[in-house]
Each structure stands twice: as structure tokens, then as C-alpha cells.
């Protein structure tokens, strides 16, 4: 099962349950991803991909699995295409928002705000006009942005690798001095801040008291490290791609191997919506609805991989249904 379908299914279910679904190590090879799941084809690589799990995309809570499937229609997908800019994709139509946008973030709660980090500060999304509007007064060159849950705080990583906490509607910033040499930042559900330094080491700064811990149990000298925004169904942890291996890093300073090896890696990922997973590969964006495949059984003729995935998870449909329900209730509760 070396396809995008299998990768997304195992990445999501394996990480979200913090345990592999079987005893096999999955290898993702260089086979083509199914064209059935392509929702966008660009001119250059997609380097960033975010699907907000707030009320912008999930305003109403579906009351059953079929309602969940229909609720995913028309959602907003934000991405950065190399040398092209920052875009929003809805119903397979892309709209350019910023020429100089670098990153996207939104809290996992019941507001509709989406923020962009750009080379000249912070912007916010105007859904009615499908435009980006300047937020606050900062003019920093921002390479990463992370919006905290249940607060008015935004964390930014600037091009000179300094992390700031932004408050007062984007007019005030305060350096987060506990975090040094950050190359990437991501927040978990409790606003703990995970970062990678120039030595490719992963650390976590606890939101409660600012304590910084180095994440243990990760490869010592990986060729690369990528932090992912966590699926909404997991707490106090974030996915980490270290070299070719997928891990889950916890706020207590430990990590767990997810038994996935990526011989071919997507250029961007979005696993935040739980059972709706996105990845970018070869200048294309792919969408995989695990619930449709496994629970509703919406199999497409000629795509044998779907039947294989459905069979692989045939004994876990109740857990997957519960995950879909938890995804929506988590958003509603915040």
C-alpha cells in the first residue's frame, strides 16, 4: 500500500492514536499519487499547506458521518507556492492573497480568524472579499506564525530566528527569550511551543512556565526535520518528520516512532482536520477523506488502493467514526 491514500491513512490514524495500526513498518516510495485526489496543480512546488480547523471551515457540527462528509465541501485551504505567493483554494479555485506570504496559522476554536506571516508583518484573511488585510503595525520579516488557542496571543518566528509573542491586536511584541536559534515553530493544543534549532534538534517550550525541554528519542543526526501542525484529536504533542521517519513528539520531552518511513516525502502537509488530510507532491495538492474511504465505503472504480485501505481498517471503523465526532466537538468546545 505505497500510495498517498495509505500514507495519509496511516499517518493520521497511527499518530492520532499514538500507536501504529499494525505491526508493519510502512515505506512510502516514489509511486505516483492517485490523480483522483488532486485538487490543485501548480507551476512550482507547494511549500506550505494549512487547513484551518476553526469556524471558518467547520461552523456547524455534523450529526452523523454523512453530514461530516458533506461538511467538508467548500472548505478553505491555504497554501504557499514557491516563487508564486500565498493562495486560498476553495472548490478547486485558487485566489492569490499575498505575493510575499510565508506562513499561515489559525487557532483551533470557534472563531473564523486566519493569520498570515509575510515579509512585512502580519495579515489576516477577509473571507467575504477573499483578500489579505494588514493586521497590527509590525513590519518584521516573518517566516513562521503560530496562533495560540483561547488567547489573543500570536507567536512569530522572524528571518533572524528570533521568536516573539505578539499581543494587543498586533501592535506589541515581546521576545520569547527561552527559545534560541529557532528555525521552525509549531504550537500544540495547549500552546506549548515546539521548535527546531540549526542543529536539527527539537525542543519544546512549555506554555505554563516557559520551561524548555529537548525532545528525546529522536534520531541524533537527521538529514532534515519538519514539524507538523497536530491533528485536532491529539493533545500536548505534534508530529515530527525526522529524516525519513515519522514520530510524535510530546510536551513531556519524549517521542514515539510512528512506524512510517518516507522514502519519498511530500513537500507540504496538513493533518489538522483529522480525518481530512492534505499533502503536496510534485506541484500538486491532494485531498484524502479517510472517513469516506473507510466508513462510508465510497470506492471509485479502478482505484484498487482504496479497497486495500478499507480492508486494512475494516476492524477500526468505530474508532474512526469516534475520531470524526471528536474532531468536530473539539472545535465546538474551544
TrEMBL record:
Which residue positions does the secretion signal occupy?
Answer: 1-18
Keyword annotations from UniProtKB, A to Z: Signal
Q: Which InterPro entries match?
A: WD40/YVTN_repeat-like_dom_sf (IPR015943)
Keyword Signal in record? yes
Q: What Gene3D superfamilies does the database record attribute to this sequence?
A: YVTN repeat-like/Quinoprotein amine dehydrogenase (2.130.10.10)
Q: What is this protein called?
A: Uncharacterized protein
Which species is the source of this protein? Loxostege sticticalis (Beet webworm moth)
Amino acid at each position: 500500500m505505497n500510495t498517498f491514500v495509505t500514507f495519509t491513512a496511516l499517518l493520521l490514524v497511527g499518530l492520532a492514536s499514538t500507536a501504529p495500526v499494525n505491526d508493519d513498518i510502512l515505506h512510502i516510495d516514489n509511486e505516483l499519487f492517485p490523480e483522483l485526489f488532486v485538487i490543485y496543480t501548480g507551476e512550482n512546488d507547494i511549500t506550505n499547506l494549512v487547513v484551518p480547523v476553526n469556524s471558518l471551515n467547520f461552523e456547524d457540527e455534523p450529526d452523523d458521518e454523512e453530514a461530516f462528509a458533506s461538511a467538508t465541501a467548500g472548505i478553505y485551504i491555504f497554501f504557499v507556492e514557491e516563487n508564486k505567493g500565498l493562495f486560498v483554494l476553495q472548490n478547486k479555485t485558487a485566489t492569490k492573497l499575498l505575493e510575499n506570504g510565508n506562513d499561515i496559522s489559525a487557532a483551533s476554536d470557534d472563531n473564523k480568524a486566519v493569520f498570515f506571516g509575510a515579509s512585512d508583518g502580519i495579515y489576516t484573511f477577509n473571507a467575504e472579499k477573499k483578500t489579505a488585510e494588514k493586521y497590527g503595525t509590525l513590519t518584521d520579516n516573518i517566516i513562521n506564525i503560530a496562533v495560540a488557542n483561547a488567547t489573543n496571543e500570536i507567536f512569530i518566528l522572524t528571518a533572524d530566528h528570533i521568536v516573539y509573542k505578539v499581543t494587543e491586536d498586533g501592535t506589541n511584541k515581546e521576545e520569547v527569550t527561552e527559545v534560541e536559534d529557532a528555525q521552525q515553530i509549531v504550537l500544540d493544543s495547549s500552546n506549548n511551543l515546539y521548535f527546531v534549532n540549526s542543529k536539527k534538534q527539537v525542543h519544546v517550550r512549555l506554555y505554563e512556565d516557559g520551561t524548555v525541554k529537548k525532545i528525546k528519542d529522536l534520531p541524533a543526526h537527521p538529514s532534515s526535520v519538519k514539524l507538523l501542525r497536530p491533528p485536532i484529536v491529539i493533545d500536548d504533542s505534534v508530529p515530527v518528520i525526522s529524516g525519513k521517519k515519522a514520530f510524535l513528539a510530546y510536551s513531556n520531552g519524549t517521542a514515539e516512532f510512528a512506524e512510517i518511513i518516507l522514502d519519498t516525502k511530500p513537500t507540504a502537509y496538513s493533518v489538522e482536520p483529522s480525518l481530512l488530510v492534505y499533502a503536496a507532491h510534485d506541484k500538486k495538492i491532494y485531498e484524502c477523506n479517510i472517513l469516506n474511504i473507510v466508513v462510508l465505503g465510497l470506492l471509485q472504480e479502478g482505484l484498487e488502493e482504496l479497497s486495500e485501505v478499507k480492508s486494512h481498517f475494516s476492524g477500526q471503523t468505530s474508532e474512526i467514526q469516534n475520531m470524526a465526532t471528536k474532531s468536530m466537538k473539539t472545535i465546538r468546545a474551544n
